[in-house]
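Components:
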Amino acid sequence: EAGVAQSPRYKIIEKRQSVAFWCNPISGHATLYWYQQILGQGPKLLIQFQNNGVVDDSQLPKDRFSAERLKGVDSTLKIQPAKLEDSAVYLCASSRHREAGELFFGEGSRLTVL
Amino acid sequence: GQQLNQSPQSMFIQEGEDVSMNCTSSSIFNTWLWYKQDPGEGPVLLIALYKAGELTSNGRLTAQFGITRKDSFLNISASIPSDVGIYFCAGQLGAGGTSYGKLTFGQGTILTVHP
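Structure:
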């Protein structure tokens, strides 16, 4: 089965610019996650979707970050405007259902903000 | 929120040696998981533990879910060069509350294996 697909793999922008990341989860997986991983740290959950509804976005900086999963499949994470501290790898993951801790991760999108 | 303390932060070992790392939390988790991350890749699940006291093996890997539900450890026996990477523990809460299903990760243990 195909894994979690993410794009772009790398993005370099200047501060105050905007960026968007795309994720296509494993087919049939109801739960989709966006994690932020800063260099040298473990992944930190930004937002969790169950189908197309938001389950948890308590750690999403909502003044600049937004995410959507309109049809319960693909998802987009947007940052506008970007700050230097947003430089990180943005990981998308999916699981069959909310109860399952067995997350399948994509390769990540590495963002550098100059 | 929940925080996981993972130790050691890094390990340098010789090929063939055994490795042990652990994770502790101030919170109780219903599920403990161990992931491995290679450079430029996303984390990959190694072992999942669902019951307090559970001991589970996956090849040369063995992990245990602590009785108090606040800790877990991972052992790797007879290490080989491809074991190099970053190992993350993760805890998941059970049903009830807005954090249901949320996975919290530790800071990671960087493993280097010298041939």
